[in-house]
Write a structure and sequence with these properties.
single chain; about 150 residues; mainly alpha; Arc Repressor Mutant, subunit A; three-stranded antiparallel beta sheet; 6 helices; about 65% helix
Length: about 150
């Protein structure tokens, strides 16, 4: 239940935000390089990039909200493509650690650059500096929302 009787306003805002984020996401996906790496695989690569170091498969599955079986297939394909590497954890030899390779970092950098260039150009054409500043704050708020865990 939404607090303080704000159900209608919050739902209207949530609906507008969901549609806007989805439309922008489609536009950004269209700017990806033609590398054939799926969105799910790019998400895994991005998660590894943002991690403080290598991750175990179970930690990666939890953070990506994936079933371990699904992640196993994706990891194998990413490793075969040379975008990640698996190595034995020196502290616990039963664990495998997954980390980005140089090729994985380069693929992410290429995609991010293409998308950021398009977005910066679009913003500079239609937004004022003050509106761009508001979007900077909105980006922080969206990050916070993405990390919220609610009961199903």
């Amino acid at each position: 239940m939404i607090k303080g009787g704000q159900d209608d306003a919050a739902l209207l805002t949530a609906n507008r935000l969901r549609r806007s984020v989805a439309a922008l996401s489609r536009r950004l996906r269209a700017r990806r390089a033609d590398h054939g790496v799926s969105a799910a695989k790019l998400s895994i690569l991005g998660r590894l990039l943002r991690a403080a170091g290598p991750l175990t498969a179970s930690t990666l599955a939890e953070r990506e909200r994936l079933q371990p079986q699904s992640l196993t297939r994706l990891i194998a394909e990413l490793e075969q493509a040379g975008l990640i590497a698996r190595r034995v954890d020196a502290g616990d030899r039963r664990q495998l650690l997954i980390e980005l390779t140089v090729a994985g970092r380069e693929l992410l950098a290429t995609d991010a650059r293409r998308q950021s260039l398009w977005l910066a150009e679009a913003m500079s054409r239609v937004l004022t500096p003050a509106e761009m500043s508001v979007l900077g704050v909105a980006a922080q708020l969206l990050d916070q929302l993405a990390d919220v865990e609610l009961d199903a």
